[in-house]
Amino acid sequence: MSKHPRFTHATLLTLIAASPIASAVRAAPPSLTPILTPSGEVAGAYPSVITGDGAIVFGTLASGGVFAWTADNGSTSVPILPGWSNIRLAGVSSNNSILVGTVETAGGERPVRWVNRVPETLDTGGRPGRALGVSADGTIIVGSIDIQGVERAWFWGYGDPLGIDSGFWTTSRATDASASGERIVGLFQSPQTGSDWQIFSLNRQAELQIIDLPTDTEWPPRPFYALGGAPVLVTDDGRSLLANLSCSSTCVAPRAFKYTYETGAWSLLPSTLYESTAGQINASGSAAVGFMQFSRQDFRGAIWTTDTGWFEVAQFLVDHALPRLNDPMFLGSISNDASLVPLYTGYGDESRAYLLNLGSVCRADLDDDNDVDFGDYLLFVEAWATEQPLGDWNRNSVVDFFDYLEFVADYDDQC
User: Fold this and answer.
1) What gap in Å lies between CA 187 and CA 201, rounded to an integer?
2) Is residue 363 pLDDT above 60, yes or no?
3) CB 183 within 8 A of CB 164
4) Rounded to whole angstroms, how far apart are CA atoms 323 and 7?
5) With bands split at pLDDT 50, 70 and 90, how would you rate the model's confidence at 284?
6) Taking Cα atoms as reference points, which of 148, 234, 230 lies closest to residue 197?
7) Do 309 and 270 touch, CB atoms closer than 8 A?
């Protein structure tokens, strides 16, 4: 932390006297709502997709079906076609009308979608394939098709289904699309990269871009590669993407990174843990859900936001006097306002599903008591006056008066 101007004890007393608000503002506390099956059973529901507005949760059932859940009506069954099994949902459009995923059939895997809850199989020319994501406007579905036993990136939209290939890739898959489908992102391998996965980006003009990956800062420098088992994700505005990167067995463990197209720069989603892997993001890229790994066998459900960084969900529940859930915990997705997360833990008769509402507790609630009040103001002013990390409110590595002004603005706005 850069040591900018020194703040004296007199400064601290002056700021305390100038406190902008003295009354408490009650913030909505977090909550955990059970998600039952359509028949009312507590086990057997596996939520995986939430709509951007948080109104509907979609998931699969241990019995083999698909359900939709709302706070008012609970779970209802979503139709599937005969012969579908092992259903895996991948995404939903912003108006809730297009739901996509992958199913097993007698002919192998097939990409599927539901249009206003009516199921259909996407055209693959009779070949196996997968649907791995959908644009927010529902016009573009991305995934892959197996051609002569090789997985190839594919998308449905712009007219006929089309493949994405530079001509020299050995394996590829498209994993996400921006809101209008203007940008499609995914993974590929080539003879040059061997088993290492790289990242591609395609725009509506069919301009293909290979994203340069960062290099590890430790000596000797080692280039990063993308994790093939995790998706590359793009924000709705198409201005940045999120990917999980590593470099080798001797390098740092996998971490989630954010890439900005305008600058061509990568930034780490900070984590001090062994590993942090993002599986889904919200529309703006300000929040993600995934896993934190404390050891090679200890995976824990986690959430990342620009305000909080990564935090462990199980500990969050305990901190807010909610029932503790055992890991591994599976977090499917997150609403656009970063407040709602569908999740489940366990399998079969031991499984339990919930909708986690993170509440409206804002960053200015420093003592985490669901009140934004004078106690929070005192905590910040003390940290600011003594140039502690908490005092760097705008996170520019300099503690100065701008941090105080920004904190007071958040404090006054109650969030």
Assistant:
1) 9
2) yes
3) no
4) 43
5) very high
6) 230
7) yes
